[in-house]
Amino acid sequence: MGDHDDLRKFIIDLAVVHGRVVLSSGREADWYVDLRRVTLHHRAAPLVGRVLRELTADWEYDAVGGLTLGADPIAVSMLHAAAETDRPLDAFVVRKAGKAHGLQRRIEGPDVAGRRVLAVEDTSTTGGSVLTAVEALREAGAEVTGVAVIVDRGAGDAVRAAGLSYRAAYTLADLGLVA
């Protein structure tokens, strides 16, 4: 099996939780995909970085990140995967709100102004979180190349409607789940 198949197995085995839950979108579901169980796992996290780098290999960007918390381990996994190549990446974190102390930055890490960046998210239903990150990135002067998620729960249309390219490593069908 390759990285893509291996990561799918980790997602199915570790991240898919069955039972009634309320999603961040406010919608209810009979299952939840808790990707932090994968993105923070010692064997799965490196796969996340490699799979998302492969998914977006034809896009031009030199920094990756998104809205904290879901995007943080993805960006770090991609940063580490890139360190092994001739195409290095920086990572950044978009806060939900600017800090009231210190440098009062909303985006932590290397400066994104004037840079091409990739916005990432673990899973997205409405696109709200990643679009919030995109708005902050644009306000900071970044050029957002596109949006990539590990699992798409339906956000693709909303992200594309916002004028952004969108890719997902896995659909719900890939995981044997029904929306």
UniProtKB/TrEMBL annotation:
The keyword DNA-binding does not apply. Transmembrane segments: none annotated. It comes from Micromonospora halophytica. Its cofactor is Mg(2+). Orotate binds at T125, R153. It catalyses: orotidine 5'-phosphate + diphosphate = orotate + 5-phospho-alpha-D-ribose 1-diphosphate. Homodimer. Keywords: Glycosyltransferase, Magnesium, Pyrimidine biosynthesis, Transferase. The keyword Transferase applies. Pathway: Pyrimidine metabolism; UMP biosynthesis via de novo pathway; UMP from orotate: step 1/2. The gene is pyrE. 5-phospho-alpha-D-ribose 1-diphosphate binds at R95, K96, K99, H101, E121, D122, T123, S124, T125, T126, G127, G128, S129. PANTHER family: OROTATE PHOSPHORIBOSYLTRANSFERASE, URIDINE 5'-MONOPHOSPHATE SYNTHASE. It holds the Pfam family Pribosyltran. Belongs to the purine/pyrimidine phosphoribosyltransferase family. PyrE subfamily. One of its GO terms (biological process) is pyrimidine nucleobase biosynthetic process. Residues 49-157 form the Phosphoribosyltransferase domain. Its EC number is 2.4.2.10. GO terms for molecular function: magnesium ion binding; orotate phosphoribosyltransferase activity. Catalyzes the transfer of a ribosyl phosphate group from 5-phosphoribose 1-diphosphate to orotate, leading to the formation of orotidine monophosphate (OMP). This is Orotate phosphoribosyltransferase. The lineage of its organism: Bacteria, Bacillati, Actinomycetota, Actinomycetes, Micromonosporales.
